[in-house]
Each structure stands twice: as C-alpha cells, then as structure tokens.
Amino acid sequence: MKQEAFWIAAIFLGFALLEMLRGSFFRKSGQTRVDALVELIGSPVLLLITQPLILIVSYTIMARLFPDAAGTWASLPIMAQIALLLVFDDMMQYWWHRTSHSVPWLYNLHRAHHSGEYMSVRIVFRNNIFYYLTMPSLWFSGALIYLGLGAVYVPYVVFKQLVIIASHSDVPWDRPLYRIGWLSPVMWVVERVISTPSTHSAHHGKHKADGITNYKGNFGNLLFFWDVLFGTAKITRRYPQEIGIENLPPIGAAEQLAWPIFRSKGTQVN
Questions:
Q1: Residue 194 forms beta bridges with which residues?
Q2: How many domains does one find in the chain?
Q3: Range of the domain at 187
Q4: Is residue 269 domain-resident?
Q5: Could you tell me if residue 266 is inside a domain?
Q6: Is the pLDDT of residue 265 over 70?
Q7: Burial of 108 by CB count in 10 Å (0-12 exposed, 13-18 middle, 19+ buried)?
Q8: Of 71, 206, 221, 230, which one has the greatest count of Cβ atoms within 10 A?
Q9: Across the strands, what pairs with 205?
Q10: What is the distance between the alpha carbons of residues 114 and 107, in angstroms, rounded to a whole number?
C-alpha cells in the first residue's frame, strides 16, 4: 500500500469512527437502500480503479510525449511545487466542480454525490463511475508527478483529503471553535482558506431559500479561497437543516452510478 493511501485510509476511518460514536454512521436520516448501493460500489471503484488508472495513464502519456522531462521539476523550491499542485490540481477541480453544476451532462455525472440526503464521510467519494475520468485535475496531477512533484504530492494529497473528509463529515468540528471569542479572528481566516463543515454543508443543502444553502457556490475542495476569489463563497457559520437535491425527482442506483449507460428521463441542472 502506498504511503498516501495508508494515511488517507486512516483519516477516513478516524472520521468514520467519530460518526459511529455519534451513532450516525450507519443510520443516516433519510438514507435508502439505493444510497448504500451507490456508496458501496462507487467509492471502491474510484479509489481502487479510476484514480490510480488516471495517474498511471497520465504519467505514461507524459513519458511517451516528453521522455527527457521526467523529474525535471523536482529541484523546484517546495513552495513552488505546492503552488503548482494548488493551481493545476485544486483550482482545476474547483472549476470542474463549478462547471458540473452548470452543464447538464456533467451534472448527470456528479449528481450521485448530492443524492444522499445527509452529510457523512460516506459521500466523500460518492460519484458516477465516469465522473472522475472527466476531471482534468487528476490528469494534471499525473503529469506533475512525472515531472518530479511526486515527493511533494504525497503530503499534499494527504492534507487535501484530510480537509475534504473533515468537511463532508457530519462531525461539525468548526462549530465549537466559532464559540471561542479569542479564536474568532483565526476562524475568520480559516473559513476563507479551507473548506469547513459549515461552508461545505451549505453546498450540499437542499433548499436555496433557507438562507444557508449555496449549491450554486461553495465549490472548493481543499481551498475555499477559490470561492472567495471567484465570487462563489457564502459564509454563514450555520448548517442547512436538510441536505439533498432541490426540485429533482430521485433516480435509481444504476443511473447514479453509470449514466449515460443507464438513464431515465433527462436530468435538468441543479
């Protein structure tokens, strides 16, 4: 097992354990059999097949096209390497995520991530099996690893997954910190830099009229800063009462996992 896979698995299991201790990991409000099926199939496909395959294929393409470029960026300063990963991985994912909520066929691929009516680590990797194949950030990451950023990519992706997993979990780690007066300036910065349970649950909220939900914004994965920079941020320090998809009927597991192979009626954009 690769080093990063070990640490990401440990982070995931840690938050899953916290949800279990809260009595909410296996019994989410509003969950259905379809949810369990989508999560049990979609998440392992991504982690064990899709993501490793993309990184390998991207790396291989770079080796064929630029055989003399392998490792040439390894000598760049660490901060420069981190900046490259933030731009070509995290910012690109922000724009692809944002586009997925505006372009119908992309939303059909991304819809499974929002179909569950709850926040949880269970939904972190929940998506159509073809969604990640279309994600430019993963292909760029493979190219950057080929160019020599592999050693920096490991701690980068571990920290990124820590933030993503923590912001999807129904453990609101940010809530008690908001209540500490002297931490207020620190949290003002934190919630504008990285994704938190408050800002990301707003993206998963079901009702736009509740004053909290922002499913047309709060797209950031690691950095919430992209939302601040590009005008899609909504910060309320509150959490939606309901999670899910507004104004769209539910669809079955097969369509969530494998649209367009399985499809019912056309899906409109949320």
A1: 223
A2: 1
A3: 3-258
A4: no
A5: no
A6: no
A7: buried
A8: 221
A9: 243
A10: 10
